[in-house]
Amino acid sequence: MPLTSSRLNIPGSGSRGARGVVTAATVFILAVLAFAGFAGHAAAVGPSGSFSLTLSYGNAGQALKRAGVSVSAVAPSTQTKLSGRRVKVNSALSAISAASAFSLRGGLRFSKGKRSIVLRQMTLLTDSGRITASVAGKRIAFFLVDANPQVNETAGTLKIIADKLRLTAGSAKLIKSKLRVDRIPATQVGGFAADVTFAFEDPYFAQCGLAALSRSVGTVPEAGPVPDLTGTGLAVGAPGITWGFKSSFNGYINGIGLIVGLDGTTVNRVPMAPPQVPPTGFTFPNAQGAYQVNGPGNADDRAYLNGTGGVMYCNAAHGFRIVISNPTVVIDGGSSRLIADIDTNISGDWMPTQRVDLADLAVGSAVVTGTAPNVTWATIPATLSQTGADALRLCEVNVPGAPPGCLYPAGTVLSSLTVSFTGV
Q1: What span, in angstroms and rounded, lies between the C-alpha atoms of 177 and 64?
Q2: What gap in Å lies between CA 125 and CA 254, rounded to an integer?
Q3: Which residues of 31-68 are buried (b: 16+ CB within 10 A; e: fewer)?
Q4: Max CA separation in the chain (angstroms)
Q5: Which of 170, 197, 224 is the last residue of a domain?
Q6: Range of 407's domain?
């Protein structure tokens, strides 16, 4: 059977019924298409690939040889003659469309005497295991492919080695009719192979210039949910979340790289200070939140504030880029924490965004002012969590001249936070 659910089965817009099974290969291809620029993001380098059809063996292949039918390539495809009158036709990737259609350059010709059938615009459809082609201006399913995909998600490669390439019932009938031969079965006519390499692009390449040579899948536990609070909502336009991550890190990056506020985040700097002075912190706009009063005073009150925007740390000279975005501050006694999206590129290895519990917050040591639900928690002490350290991957950074060991392990004291809640 061609490309069953245990094999490569990538549902495109035309998938129907049982053929719409989503596999690991499906997810990978859809992801790499997005990375490579086929889902709305322009990539610097597109995918490339090679395809080969080795014909004239198997039952149908032997029948073609006995009938005197020859196979040849149509430019720009090329061909190589093999032993046993087999022919290997090589084509390059032309385009990818619909997340499941791989178009091949060139074509293929079946000939007998002065009669011929020419296949142009050949396309591998991975959702159905077919190779279609334009024959005399009409598109038909010409081959069926049995394939076991070899997917390397980190390297961004897809390999298909098909033990069997079969004629469809329609193509077998067409060959018998057009070339005037008998007994061409809809069975194996040869073999098929594909080798495609996709191009990863760091999503912040335009701002930082650090290329992504590979992609890793994050394994850090996802951030826990914010508490389900019943109470006052956050007023639109309320003051945002102010935090500096870590002042020593800001100084290090500011001296050799870039610190950039993203999507409305303000990089706070000392007025009139020279550029070499590092920022004092960042203000992330507030988007949404909730406040719940628990008894008199503010000590036991609970709240959360969702921020937007982000900050990018770019140190291309030392080979890394980190983006911290969309912070959420949870005020919940001993469970208070800072949640954020973390996206990293360490030495060319891009790890897409993970939402993690980045830091633990000691709300009991904060300076709390105001009357509920209009409350400010100032200078909340923060320490880097284990999941935060793992997500930032700073222990993987090799800083020239730095002492051995991790500079920012779990438990590292970070800059304090200040957040204000303004109720509606």
Answers
A1: 13
A2: 49
A3: bbbebbbbeeeebeeebebebbbbbbbbebbbbbbebe
A4: 97
A5: 197
A6: 205-421
Q: Tokens standing for 159?
A: 């390999």
Q: Peptide bond preceding 327: is omega within 30 degrees of 0, i.e. cis?
A: no
Residue 5 lies in a domain: no
288 and 175 in a common domain: no
Contact present, 38 and 99 (Cβ < 8 Å): yes
- Select from 387, 389, 363 the least CA-distant residue to 377: 363
pLDDT value of residue 30: 52
Sign of torsion over alpha carbons 379, 413, 205, 339:
negative
Reported pTM: 0.69
Of 163, 179, 197, the position where a domain reaches its end is 197
pLDDT tens digits for 283-326?
A: 999 889 999 998 888 888 999 999 999 999 999 999 999 999 99
pLDDT in tens, 61-78: 999 999 999 999 999 999
Task: Quickly count: other Cβ atoms within 10 Å of residue 314's Cβ.
Answer: 21
4 located within any domain: no
Sign of CA dihedral 397, 401, 404, 406: negative
The count of structural domains within the chain is 2
pLDDT in tens, 40-64: 333 345 689 999 999 999 999 999 9
- The answer to whether the CB of 375 falls within 8 A of the CB of 367 is no
d(CA 415, CA 301): 23
Element (H, E) at 58: helix 58-66
pLDDT of res. 26: 53
Q: Residue 255 in 3-state DSSP?
A: helix
> What is the sign, positive or negative, of the torsion defined by CA atoms of 397, 398, 401, 406?
positive
Q: 262, 207, 214, 260: which is closest to 35 by C-alpha? A: 214
Please state, as a whole number, how many other Cβ atoms lie within 10 Å of the Cβ of residue 130.
Answer: 19
